[in-house]
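Give me structure tokens for this 204-residue protein.
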Amino acid sequence: MESLDEKQPFSGADLVVLSEHVDYWNGDGWVDPYSSRVFSERQLRYADQFGLDSVYTPQVIVDGQRQSVGGNAAAIRNAVGAVARTEKIALTLSNAARDGNRIRLHLTSGDLINNHGAATVYIAVADNKVQSSVPAGENGGRLLTHVAVVRVLSPVGSVKPGSSFSQDLVVRMPSPLSADGIRLVAFLQDNKSHKILGATEEKL
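Here you go.
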């Protein structure tokens, strides 16, 4: 994930990465401080979509349409190559600024074309880079580094076919903040197919 985020190794594709930490590994003397049931439930919906018998980690979901084991570089490369040819709907973040423990911004989208169904607009606030010291369990004694760790994931609106999105928004910031800063990511996801129709990000 760190390599994909920093090196952007695919020609013709700007990768917007997010790391969603599931909570079902919590136990054995350790709780992932960045985990959330929200992300576990989101992964379960993807498992249903892809016809998987169970969930697993690390898993990579590309564009809401392809999935692979997180360490399978060839599968990730093939997935990115396949979806990079799909035209995306433009999303634009503007006037993003911190206001106390909140972020104020304006988000606009291009028109949702009629061959898509209704879509949901999401805002994610993620730490650029964090570390966690694991005292016990499978990774006991290790210091783990994570990038683009989602701390807040909120649906902020919906878009119908033939229409667009334009709205001033306020989202809360995670606490405590990473010393390496945070990133704001907006994406548009088809409600039925779960396909990512467009995405954008800004580091604050």
